[in-house]
């Protein structure tokens, strides 16, 4: 990402943090993912990942990072499309300050 | 510092840039949640309770619940259930009904009262005899001992009761002076 975009991203991030919207978004995503059993699936993936490892390799400081790195691509693909779209819409509307268009708000 | 929303909108007039930023923020939030899940799993595996609820299919088959007429959930017939459970005494190797095991053990191993002395004597004297008859005798004698012991104890108790009160009265007499 170029510096201008990075600056905008930082500003947007800061705005979400300050208004508490980021926590709100996180809670929303969390609840949607719980509804769709996403977390169970990710937990299964983690278990499969751990099964191939010995305990010593899990004791290193970077074990969790390695695990996240390993499962992140698959886990991102596991997020249901409608959940991702809802989140993206909400984030966009919160950054721009406009409410999300009513016709695309699900449920 | 509060950033007016207009500044972001001005900067992000380009839709693709905007959607790019939105996606990065979305990915950030998703990563945080993923990290949370990973932490949980990592902790579980470190503490050793991650695979605790998993059992091999072989074991699952063993404990499958059977739903048939005339059988209990383990697939055993009803008549089989009536069979009494037997315990083997570690002292005299006899097998006894479970309900009789605790009283037998008390007598056989000579716990409590004066039966212990008699039991150990008997064991020492009857080492040449067969195991079975030895145990039988031990058990029976234990019964009589127990009764005898009960009878013997009554006067003892009385004595004990009298004892302390007598001592106590002596004390009070002494301290009274």
From TrEMBL, chain A:
Annotated InterPro entries: TF_ENY2 (IPR018783), TF_EnY2_sf (IPR038212)
Keywords: Activator, Chromatin regulator, mRNA transport, Nucleus, Protein transport, Transcription, Transcription regulation, Translocation, Transport
Organism domain of life: Eukaryota
Any Gene Ontology CC annotation: nuclear pore
Pfam families noted in UniProt: EnY2 (PF10163)
A GO biological-process term: mRNA export from nucleus
Record's subcellular location: Nucleus, Nucleoplasm
Keyword Zinc applies: no
Main location per the UniProt record: nucleus
Annotated GO MF terms: transcription coactivator activity
Protein family according to the UniProt entry: Belongs to the ENY2 family.
Function text: Involved in mRNA export coupled transcription activation by association with both the TREX-2 and the SAGA complexes. The transcription regulatory histone acetylation (HAT) complex SAGA is a multiprotein complex that activates transcription by remodeling chromatin and mediating histone acetylation and deubiquitination. Within the SAGA complex, participates to a subcomplex that specifically deubiquitinates histones. The SAGA complex is recruited to specific gene promoters by activators, where it is required for transcription.
Known partners and oligomeric status: Component of the nuclear pore complex (NPC)-associated TREX-2 complex (transcription and export complex 2). Component of the SAGA transcription coactivator-HAT complex. Within the SAGA complex, participates to a subcomplex of SAGA called the DUB module (deubiquitination module).
Entry-linked HAMAP family: ENY2_Sus1
The name this protein goes by in its record: Transcription and mRNA export factor ENY2
Organism placement in taxonomy: Eukaryota, Metazoa, Ecdysozoa, Arthropoda, Chelicerata
From TrEMBL, chain B:
Transmembrane stretches, start-end: none
Biased segments, Polar residues type: 167-177
Record GO biological process: chromatin organization; regulation of transcription by RNA polymerase II
Main location: nucleus
Zinc finger residue ranges, SGF11-type: 87-108
Biased composition (Acidic residues): 133-142
Residues covered by region (Disordered): 119-177
GO cellular component, one term: SAGA complex
Gene Ontology molecular-function annotations: transcription coactivator activity; zinc ion binding
Record function comment: Component of the transcription regulatory histone acetylation (HAT) complex SAGA, a multiprotein complex that activates transcription by remodeling chromatin and mediating histone acetylation and deubiquitination. Within the SAGA complex, participates in a subcomplex that specifically deubiquitinates histone H2B. The SAGA complex is recruited to specific gene promoters by activators, where it is required for transcription.
Domains: entry comment: The C-terminal SGF11-type zinc-finger domain forms part of the 'catalytic lobe' of the SAGA deubiquitination module. The long N-terminal helix forms part of the 'assembly lobe' of the SAGA deubiquitination module.
HAMAP family: Sgf11 (MF_03047)
Subunit structure: Component of some SAGA transcription coactivator-HAT complexes. Within the SAGA complex, participates to a subcomplex of SAGA called the DUB module (deubiquitination module).
Xref: PANTHER family: ATAXIN-7-LIKE PROTEIN 3 (PTHR46367)
Protein name: SAGA-associated factor 11 homolog
Source organism per UniProt: Tetranychus urticae (Two-spotted spider mite)
């Amino acid at each position: 990402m170029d510096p201008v975009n990075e600056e905008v991203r930082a500003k947007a991030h800061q705005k979400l943090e300050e208004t508490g919207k980021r926590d709100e978004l996180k809670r929303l995503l969390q609840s949607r993912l719980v509804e769709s059993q996403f977390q169970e699936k990710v937990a299964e993936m983690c278990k499969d990942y751990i099964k191939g490892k010995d305990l010593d390799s899990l004791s290193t400081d970077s074990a969790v990072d390695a695990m996240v790195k390993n499962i992140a691509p698959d886990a991102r693909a596991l997020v249901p499309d409608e959940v991702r779209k809802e989140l993206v819409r909400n984030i966009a509307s919160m950054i721009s300050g406009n409410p999300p268009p009513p016709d695309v708000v699900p449920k | 510092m509060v950033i007016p929303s207009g500044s972001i909108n001005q900067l992000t007039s380009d839709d693709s840039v905007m959607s790019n930023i939105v996606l990065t923020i979305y990915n950030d939030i998703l990563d945080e949640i993923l990290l949370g899940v990973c932490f949980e799993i990592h902790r579980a595996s470190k503490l050793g309770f991650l695979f605790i609820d998993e059992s091999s299919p072989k074991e699952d088959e063993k404990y499958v619940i059977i739903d048939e007429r005339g059988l209990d959930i383990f697939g055993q017939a009803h008549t089989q259930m009536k069979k009494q459970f037997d315990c083997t005494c570690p002292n005299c190797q006899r097998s006894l009904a479970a309900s009789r095991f605790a009283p037998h053990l008390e007598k056989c191993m000579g716990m409590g009262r004066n039966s212990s002395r008699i039991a150990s004597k008997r064991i020492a004297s009857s080492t040449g005899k067969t195991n079975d008859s030895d145990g039988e005798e031990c058990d029976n004698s234990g019964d009589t001992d127990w009764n005898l012991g009960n009878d013997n104890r009554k006067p003892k108790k009385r004595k004990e009761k009298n004892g302390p009160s007598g001592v106590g009265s002596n004390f009070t007499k002494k301290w009274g002076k």
